[in-house]
Amino acid sequence: MTTRILLADDHALVRRGVRLILDGEPDLTVVAEAGDGAQAIALALSERPDLAILDIAMPRLTGLQAARELSRQLPGLRILILTMYDNEQYFFEALKVGANGYVLKSVADRDLVEACRAAVRDEPFLYPGALNAVVRTYLQRAARGESPPARAITEREEEILKLVAEGHSSKEIARLLFISVKTVERHRANLLQKLGLKDRLELTRYAIRAGLIEA
User: pTM of the predicted model, to two decimals?
Assistant: First the structure.
């Protein structure tokens, strides 16, 4: 059987290169392309692919946010995170939101096809550095008797933070997330209070540090 793939990345050149790799395999085919996380969710719901490959840093919704929502709405969908970031924080977030694997763009020509096939078999795919991070972090937390740290903000607050930082108005955010303007304003006030910030500029700087948007 051929694995039907949704590919999401906000750079058309990257999508083209990844598609060349995947479409060159007899058992893999790209059936849809998305330029941001929200479009990826919409296409996944309409096209019902077997596998979604998501970049982390995308407009509107990040790949991690999209993966979280897709895991809820399409529990049978396999998900891979394809990223330029060799970053433990992103890697652990990817596992938490239901991704089957984490592939670096720098070695996509070597690892991506194998990662796709592993995901279809419902097997995890971890590049060597990520595997070392898993073991190291687990051992450190176990030695300290710690559990994973709690999230500083809720998933909805994270979505709103990203959109605020991208310059969307409260009205636009309400329309994108299907909530009221009053709800958006309440979440934004909660964000400022929780994070100890004063205005949109400081929220934007925080979003950049958190990897929700690119500088």
Answer: 0.70
